[in-house]
Amino acid sequence: MDQLLIKAQTLIEALPYIQKFNNKKVVVKYGGSAMLDEELQLNVIKDVALLKLVGMQPIIVHGGGKEISKWVGLLGHESKFVEGLRVTDEETMEVAEMVLGKVNKGLVQKVEQLGVKAVGISGKDGATIKVEKKLVNGQDIGYVGNIIDINVDLINTLIDNNFIPVIAPIGLDESFHAYNINADDVACAIATAVGAEKLAFLTDTEGVYKDPEDKRTLISVLSLEQADELIEGGYIEGGMLPKIKNCIDAVRNGVSRVHILDGRMEHCLLLEFFTNRGIGTAIINYERLFEHEK
């Protein structure tokens, strides 16, 4: 009986969140180790399917960098990066499209197996993502795109017809050439463009730490001002720095809250979205808190 009561209490705790986020768009950026483990992958898809079934409007944006590197290596080439961005020549771009297409349709298949409708697209479809060439400190690194416009028509059409859009990070320039895009950038741009209520990043870390060497310093909730202070104080560096900057930009541009979660933890999305404490780090616009959170 005690276990049944605990389950009932969990559902009651989730109720205000389900009510507040009903029919709201939420973007899940799916990447990291959670993409490589079949069991973790299925758990993530189950979470997203449940978000849909309780009334939210989820959108998945996925990466595939580790898989791209594997296939580039199988072709006898070495992956090169400049400031975390893959140097992408013509051949590498072809590999990226092939791999991301395979990942995309695999995710769609898993969603459909759970009885939820999904459609896989890239930014090429419906002219969804328009890009220009991205330069890194003036250096040309090939077909790497900088997002200049998001056309939400196709995304909204899919949502309106009860599909979960699953989006691969590829866009087109004005000459209609394909470009590889950083998936974090795509997730933030799409969340902003569709007016998402939430944006969740699945990563290989538990969240944001004030001291990365001390796991006790995990920060559960950050305001925009606190996030800025951590950056200015040099507490955030490496691969987390551009991610946090993306999160801050998304919140400043209308996304009410961004979550950084450990995708290796089973059902991390449900724990963060539907419990009072959550498990990762949430960057929140405090002007848009719900009544039960104040």
Note down, in words, how this protein is organized.
This protein is 40% helix and 26% strand. It is an alpha/beta fold. The protein has an 8-stranded mixed β-sheet with strand order 5-8-2-1-11-15-16-14, with helices on both faces. The protein has a two-stranded antiparallel ribbon with strand order 3-4. α3 (65-74) crosses α4 (90-113) and α6 runs parallel beside α8. The longest helix is centred in the middle third of the chain and has 24 residues, at 90-113. The mean pLDDT is 87.
Topology record:
Layout: H1 2-20, E1 25-30, H2 38-53, E2 57-62, H3 65-74, E3 81-82, E4 85-86, H4 90-113, E5 118-122, E6 129-136, E7 139-150, H5 153-160, E8 164-168, E9 170-172, E10 178-180, H6 183-194, E11 198-203, E12 208-209, E13 218-219, E14 221-223, H7 224-232, H8 240-252, E15 257-262, H9 268-274, E16 281-284
Parallel strand pairs: 1-2, 1-11, 2-8, 5-8, 11-15, 14-16
Antiparallel strand pairs: 3-4, 6-7, 9-10, 12-13, 15-16
Q: Tell me the strand order in the biggest sheet.
A: 5-8-2-1-11-15-16-14
| Series of secondary-structure elements, N-terminal to C-terminal | HEHEHEEHEEEHEEEHEEEEHHEHE
Number of strands: 16
Distance between the termini: 33 Å
- Pairing-aware structural class of the strands and helices? alpha/beta
Query: How would you sum up the global shape?
Result: globular
Unreliable sequence segments: none
Largest sheet: 8 strands, mixed
Q: Which percent range describes the beta-strand content?
A: 25-35%
| Arithmetic mean of pLDDT | 87
Number of helices: 9
Helix content: 40-55%
Radius of gyration: 19 Å
